[in-house]
Amino acid sequence: MPSARVKQDKIRAVRKELEGLALSATSAHQLMSQMVKLLHERMLKYNWVGFYMLEKSAPAQDRMLVLGPFQGAMTPHTRIPLNQGICGAAASTGKTIIVDDVTSDPRYLACSVETKSEIVVPVFARKSSANSTSIVTFLLLSTMKTANSSNIAPGWLGSISKRRSHERRKRPDALA
User: Fold this and answer.
1) 153: closest CA among 92, 95, 99, 86?
2) Is-above-0.85 flag for pTM?
3) What's the pLDDT band for 1 if we cut at 50, 70, 90?
4) For 53, phi and psi rounded to 5 degrees?
5) Exposure check for the chain: N or C terminus, fewer CB within 10 A?
6) For residue range 81-121, what is the model confidence (pLDDT) as tens digits?
7) Which of the pair, 132 or 3, is modelled with greater confidence?
């Protein structure tokens, strides 16, 4: 098992690569595609990494999350209503949601029997007018092991989302 220092060095290297991708990408789609590829290849604990985009063309009450670039097995959930699933919960609250054991969370939309834990991170974009931010997409990371939040949530998550608020759903036995 790698030491904490080795893990931190790996996270720093991935973070640096992500920053490089952000500087060199010519479009948001290219950046998202490169990010999911890098995270899927370098952070082996994640068996599925992808983005869901907030659909802007529909009226507010009918908006959906639409599957964007991803790496991992195909998912049946290519469109998710804002009031469903862990991704929908993150969209509704604007907060990062970490679920240590998806079997204990009734919001989980089953995609793969391999998925045991999930992290959904809202990604915000700064609007040029009024210096405000809005959610534009969500990064979903799935793992094949139940874990505690410190094991599945790497330190670079805060740098992806401008807001650091989050919700954690721990395994029932972890609450005792």
Assistant:
1) 99
2) no
3) low
4) -100, 145
5) N
6) 888 999 888 888 888 888 989 999 999 988 878 888 888 88
7) 3
Asked whether the beta carbons of 25 and 34 are under 8 A apart, the reply is yes
**Residues in CB range of 127: below 8 A, 6 or more apart:** 133, 134
Mean of pLDDT values over 1-8: 76
How many whole angstroms separate alpha carbon 69 and alpha carbon 23?
19
Q: Of the candidates 119, 98, 103, 110, which has an alpha carbon nearest to the alpha carbon of residue 169?
A: 98
Whole-angstrom Cα distance, residue 120 to residue 138? 6
Q: Under CATH, which number does the domain 45-174 receive? A: 3.30.450.40
Helix (H, G, I), strand (E, B) or coil at 43: coil
- Could you tell me which of 120, 150, 129, 156 has the C-alpha nearest to residue 48? 120
Q: Where are the domains of the chain?
A: 45-174
- Four-point Cα dihedral 112, 106, 101, 66, nearest 10: 50
Are 81 and 88 within 8 A, CB to CB? yes
85 neighbors 97 (Cβ within 8 angstroms):
no
The tokens describing 171, both together, are 């395994």
Please tell me which residue, 125 or 131, carries the higher pLDDT value. 125
